[in-house]
Amino acid sequence: MRRAWAGLVLLALTAAGCDRGKHPQQVNTVAPAFSISDGEQSADLSKLRGKTVILNFWASTCIPCIEEIPSLEDLQQQRPDISVIAISMDEDQDSYKRFLEKYHINLHTVWDGAQKVNPMYGTYRYPETYVIDKNGMLRRKFIGPQTWTSPEIMEYLAKL
Fold it and tell me: What is the CATH number of the domain that holds 113?
């Protein structure tokens, strides 16, 4: 009997741990507007109307985030019609800058040490990425690192 209960508890915890909002309530709603600047880079969602936007939340201490960055850079190169914005949740701006310099990151990234934008999207773990269509509507949320130039994702983005 103990084993059965332990199994049920483990199953419940596993299921709860995997649900990070793959189908957030805000999908198919207007994306929360934001304007952010870190003194060097900035991003204003309202100025990107008419373009598909890939909004990525990441941190330089997050291994899956680091693994995903080259794929986001590839997407940005292959699809210049899509705006890729990577918002860093790093607490320390100097660490963030050193990371960008060390790895020669060629991606539109903005530091948000105060973490003002991610709560607007309900994102507290990284990486999480949102696809916002040309009309400013949230269309999809990706949890975890993705291969952004995979045929499936490229086909999905082409349909937007």
Answer: 3.40.30.10
Residue 4 forms part of a structural domain: no
Instruction: State how many domains the chain has.
Output: 1
**Among residues 39, 48, 53, 32, which one has the least CA distance to residue 116?**
32
- Range(s) of the domain holding residue 31: 21-159
Phi–psi pair at 92, nearest 5 degrees? -105, 120
Q: What is the pTM of this model?
A: 0.84
Q: What is the pLDDT along the chain (160 residues), one digit of tens a residue?
A: 544 443 433 333 333 333 344 445 779 999 999 999 999 999 999 999 999 999 999 999 999 999 999 999 999 999 999 999 999 999 999 999 999 999 999 999 999 999 999 999 999 999 999 999 999 999 999 999 999 999 999 999 999 9
